[in-house]
Amino acid sequence: MTEKPVIEASNLSLTFQTGDGPVHALKDVDLEIGKGEFVSFIGPSGCGKTTFLRCIAALETPTAGRLTVNGMSPDEARKARSYGYVFQAAGLYPWRTIAGNVRLPLEIMGYSKEDQAARVEKVLSLVDLEGFGKKFPWQLSGGMQQRASIARALAFDAEILLMDEPFGALDEIVRDKLNEELLKLWSATNKTIGFVTHSIPEAVYLSTKIVVMSPRPGRIHEVIESTLPKGPRPLDIRDSEEFLKIAHQVREGLRAGHAYDE
Amino acid sequence: MKMVAPILAVLAAIVLLWYGAAVGLNAQWTYDQAARAGETVTFSELVTDTMNQKRPVLPAPHQVAQGLWQGVFGQKFTSKRSLIFHGWITLSATLAGFALGTGLGIVLAVGITHSRAMDLSVMPWAIASQTIPILAIAPMVIVVLASLGITGLLPKAIIAAYLSFFPVLVSMVKGLRAPDNMQLDLLKTYNASKGETFWKLRLPSSMPYLFASLKVGVAASLVGTIVAELPAGATRGLGARLLSGSYYGQTVQIWSALFAAAALAALLVIVVGAIERITLKRMGMVR
User: Can you give the residue ranges of the ABC transporter domain (chain A) (predicted)?
Assistant: First the structure.
């Protein structure tokens, strides 16, 4: 990799002080994420995968170590609006239409009215929601709401997309479809994506790089580079030998990291 | 129609009970009158008399209805005996007080949600203010303001505001704090300012809470205004009507004024409810 990494963490630690003593949410995390990579973070609860993503987004502040996003500190990167963040719940405002929700970041960031309208239309078609702009969130299914929230994160030109278990609350059929769409979207936009998940098949299917994490203290156990082709992958790639091999490797990594101890 | 039948049944039961109570409570006066004249009264004479006394202990429903009709339609709206005239006096002070109280409640709630110092200092005082009986404080406010040369609508509006700001304050603090961490984090990722967070997230989130409290607040405003009309010999307003009725033993007048006040309260709550439905519907928050 000759290009400078988009996200670079070295010796990163985050310790929460609680009534029961310190909790090491992250300990000595080293990681580089290059431009255009799709990186999944997988591990059991308490392994710090969400915390790490929140550190990148400057929603948490590390207590030790170094973290840069686009060569800036995470907080500078946040102020420069370098990333879009997708949460586990769609979190659409019930008093705004779908288009109004997608427009929200654009209004805050001061885009012109015409630009706002053009962008809303563009990203709604990217996530396959053309014609739903005037609907209110409650008129849409859960999967469609989550697509709208992805459109909201894509509406402004952030190079980085951070996704915290975005499909965790959806059923598997919807999840498969959204995974496929996400891959298409990623290859069309060439964004750098950080993706937190609980699901091994999801991680393997989507990623160019899989970061296996283990708990207490939260740390990186293993980084697996995917040998699957980059770009849109057909859903049935999940039946291929190569896919199963990588999935097995992830499972072994989770086991060695004591993820199954409880 | 399904809704109407039970309501009518309950209403009929209340009217029946009321007539019974009127006979029972007013009987003593009829007996006393008869004894003085050296006569005896039959049951049917008793019932007829108790229904039509000039100053009954408890006026019968039809007497109150007559009083209401007389008060509303029996004279010019500008007459001192018109319930419309007195109702308007009370209504105008109620609305002024309601606006004042709602404004104060919202401003304090915004302060409390944005400043830790205000959160710690204002809330205990707001709660303490509501533990003081309004009947005790109203005359003092009226007297103090009158000595400063402020009379008429404003002192009454202040009492009304005193009662109505509290529910608005409590609900708005809850409403402005309703957005969860995820929604606040989302705005943080956009690097939104405090002002943007307020206008785009906190304020819209608080609307259902606001309207719930407005219904309580508007009724409280009316109570506050009527209480404020009682002392210091006010001559205008439903409260003054209640007071003068009790001075002269005009129970029919008291009951008529009471019913006029109740109707006014119902009307105000219905209007606020209608505004709530329209607003929330336009915001897309009603399915």
Answer: 7-240
Q: Do A136 and B284 touch (CB under 8 A)?
A: yes
Nearest in space to A256 (alpha carbons), one of A203, A220, A207, A204 = A220
Least reliable range by pLDDT among B95-109, B136-150, B206-220: B136-150
CB contact under 8 A, B190 and A81: yes
CA gap B131, B137 in Å, rounded: 11
Phi, psi dihedrals of residue B54, rounded to the nearest 5°: -75, -40
Per-residue pLDDT, averaged over B160-174, amounts to 95
* Tokens matching residue A30: 């080293």
Q: Which of A176, A178, A78 is nearest to A127 (CA)?
A: A178
Separation between Cα atoms, residue B10 and residue B15, nearest integer Å: 9
Token pair listed for A255: 């086991």
Same domain flag for B150 and B268: yes
User: Nearest CA to CA, how far is A234 from chain B (Å)?
Assistant: 32
Burial label, B287 (beta-carbon count in 10 A; 0-12, 13-18, 19+): exposed
Q: For residue B104, give its domain range.
A: 83-282
The DSSP element (H or E) to which B39 belongs, if any, is: none
Instruction: Indicate whether A2 pLDDT > 70.
Output: no
Domain that holds residue A252: 34-82+158-262
| 8 Å CB contact between B113 and B176 | yes
Report the 10 Å Cβ neighbour count for B7: 9
Q: Are residues B145 and B33 in the same domain?
A: no
Residues of A in contact with B287 (CB under 8 A): 138
Give residue A193's pLDDT. Answer: 94
For residue B109, what pLDDT band results from cuts at 50, 70 and 90?
very high
User: Is residue A137 a part of any domain in this protein?
Assistant: yes
For A158, the token pair is 């952030």
A59 close contact with B: CB closer than 8 A: yes
Kindly list the residues from chain B whose CB atom is less than 8 angstroms away from the CB atom of residue A91. Answer: 182-183, 186
In the structure encoding, which two tokens stand for residue B253, read together? 């007048």
User: How many separate domains does chain A show?
Assistant: 2
Measured distance CA(A121)–CA(A105) in Å, rounded? 14
The CATH number of whichever domain residue A55 belongs to comes to: 3.40.50.300
Number of structural domains chain B divides into: 2
- The total of other beta-carbon atoms located within 10 Å of residue B65's CB is 14
Best of B189, B193, B202, B206 to disrupt the A interface by mutation (most A CBs within 10 Å)? B189
Nearest residue in B to A137, CA atom: B284
HEC sequence for B98-158: HHHHHHHHHHHHHHHHHCHHHHHHHHHHHHHHCCCCHHHHHHHHHHHHHHCCCCCHHHHHH
- The per-residue pLDDT for range B17-32, each reduced to its tens digit, is 999 999 999 999 889 9
Residue written as tokens 């608005």?
Answer: B168
Contact assessment for residue B222 and residue B262, using Cβ atoms and an 8 Å cutoff:
no
